[in-house]
Write a structure and sequence with these properties.
Layout lengths: L1 E9 L4 E4 L8 H9 L8 E6 L8 E5 L6 H14 L7 E8 L6 E8 L2 E7 L5 E9 L2 E10 L2 E7 L5 H11 L2 H4 L4 E8 L4 E8 L4 E4 L4 H15 L3 E7 L2 E10 L2 E20 L1
Parallel strand pairs: 2-3, 4-5, 10-11
Antiparallel strand pairs: 1-2, 1-16, 3-4, 5-6, 6-7, 7-16, 8-9, 9-10, 11-12, 12-13, 14-15, 15-16
Amino acid sequence: MEVKFIKTSPTQNMTILVESRLVRNMYPKVASRLMAYDHVFAEQVGFIESAENVKAWARLQMMAGEFCGNATMALAAVMAWRRRLQYGERLEVPLEVSGTNELLVCGIEATSNGYLCRLKMPLPLAIDKTTVLLEGERTPVTIIKYPGIVHVIVNVREFDRSAKEKAQDMARLVMLLQGEAALGVMLYREESSELEPLVYVPGTNTMIWERGCGSGVAAIGAYAALEAGRDIHLEIKQPGGVVQVWAQCLHGKLADLTIQGHVHISAEGTAFI
């Protein structure tokens, strides 16, 4: 089977967008093959579909139906690329996205080496503090539930082997997944604004230490704003680069959440499945 694709790099969170029209029950199998080291190779896969909302230019359906901020920005960048957006020009791209019923609008600016993308994120469905028991040890965490994905924020001093092994064990806890399509464990060094994101998608049986995670950065912004009780702006450093987040806090509640990152179009072609 031949599959048309575009490979994108939103802050090095390598994302394949499939242009070929396939039935959705094929998505997990196709995504797993495309992500493989001996194939196109990426951290995640999204599928471009026709939108039901007449205001949306396209629909992004992620491989397991989860919501993904980076892939949303990547598709918006592809839309701008298709329209030959020139250096310094700006464009607003409305999209339907899996994991949320909101119409998302991504602002795009063409730069010398790609696209600067600013996306107003859907607000979390719930934010809760709890403790997780692993091997007799309790770890305090903050759980940020988005449509389609749950992020678990774990404050750490170092990104050492022990912290990463604990994160991998935590990612497989069904109680944390809460019936959603994906689970992210966000190891966060608050003093240096550094994030190392681990994302587990049971539907494709993939667990990946990602170079960047847009919704994970948004989760950090939500967490930081509510902890501080005020509006915040952070530059979150990830292995693949920096993503900015703005979070507005009004009367002790989260009122607005926006992320901004850079997307580069890496390749376009045909994959053989």
